[in-house]
Amino acid sequence: MRTGYHHNEQDTESAVANMIEYIMISAVIMALLIVMLLLVNTNIMEDPANRLIYVAFTDIGNGVSTRMVDVYAIAPANGTITTKFDIPDEIVGRGYLVELGADTSSGDQDITVSRGYLNAHIAIAGIATTRGVGGNTTGAGMNIISYNSSGFE
Fold first, then answer.
1. Which of 101, 86, 83 shows the shortest CA–CA distance to 139?
2. What gap in Å lies between CA 98 and CA 140, rounded to an integer?
3. pLDDT in tens, 46-86
4. Is the sign of the CA dihedral 136, 65, 49, 106 positive or negative?
5. Residue 44 — very low, low, confident or very high, per pLDDT cuts 50/70/90?
6. Who wins on pLDDT, 38 or 131?
7. What is the 3-state secondary structure (H, E, C) of the chain?
8. What's the pLDDT score for residue 1?
9. How many CA atoms are closer than 13 Å to the CA of 136, on its beta-carbon side?
10. Are 53 and 115 in contact (CB under 8 A)?
C-alpha cells in the first residue's frame, strides 16, 4: 500500500459511467431479444407447420381424386352410384374446406383444399373434362361422392 493514499475518496464519475454502460448494454440486449422472439415464432414454428399443412392438403386432395376416379370407373350407364368415405377431421388442430370444380385459370377440373391463405390445388386425374364435377365438403363426418347418369339439378 502506498503511503498517503486514502481509499475512502469516491470517484463518482467512474461510477456513473459504469452504470450508464450497463444500462446501454442491457437495453441493446433486450432489444435484440425482443426481435429474436418475434422472428422465432414465424421462422421456427409457423413455416414448418404451414409446410406440414400443405403436404396434408395435397394428400387429402389426391385421396379424394382417387375416390372420384374409382366411382367414375364403375359408374353405371343408367343409374346412380354413391360411396361414403372419411378424411381427417382436422389438420394441425383446425378444420379445412374441400371444393371440387373447374379451375378458372386452366379450364381443367380440380380439387382445392384450403384453410385461410393456405391452398392446395390437385387435378382430378383420369376424368379430365369428360364428366362435370362440383361440390364441397369439410373434414368433419362422413363424406359422400354420388354419380347419377342423368345428372344432378
1. 86
2. 11
3. 888 889 999 999 999 999 888 888 888 888 888 888 889 89
4. negative
5. confident
6. 38
7. CCCCCCCCCCCHHHHHHHHHHHHHHHHHHHHHHHHHHHHHHHHHHHHHHHHHHHHHHHHHHHHHHHHHHHHHHCCCCCCEEEEEECCCCCECCECCEEEEEECCCCCCEEEEEEECCEEEEEECCCCCCCCCCCEEEECCCCEEEEEECCCCC
8. 47
9. 9
10. yes
Cell numbers 361422392: residue: 145
CA distances from 118 to 27, 28, 50, 53, 91 (A): 38, 37, 8, 8, 12
- The pTM score is 0.70
Domain extents in the chain = 55-148
Please give the grid coordinates belonging to residue 49: 407447420
- Long-range contact pairs involving 88-95 (C-beta distance under 8 Å, separation at least 24): 88/56, 88/60, 88/139, 89/139, 89/140, 89/141, 90/139, 91/53, 91/56, 91/57, 91/60, 91/115, 91/139, 92/49, 92/52, 92/53, 92/56, 95/138, 95/139, 95/140
All three cell numbers of 152, joined, read 344432378
Q: Which amino acid is it at 7? A: H
- Sequence-distant (6+) residues with CB within 8 A of 87 are 60, 63, 64, 98, 139, 143
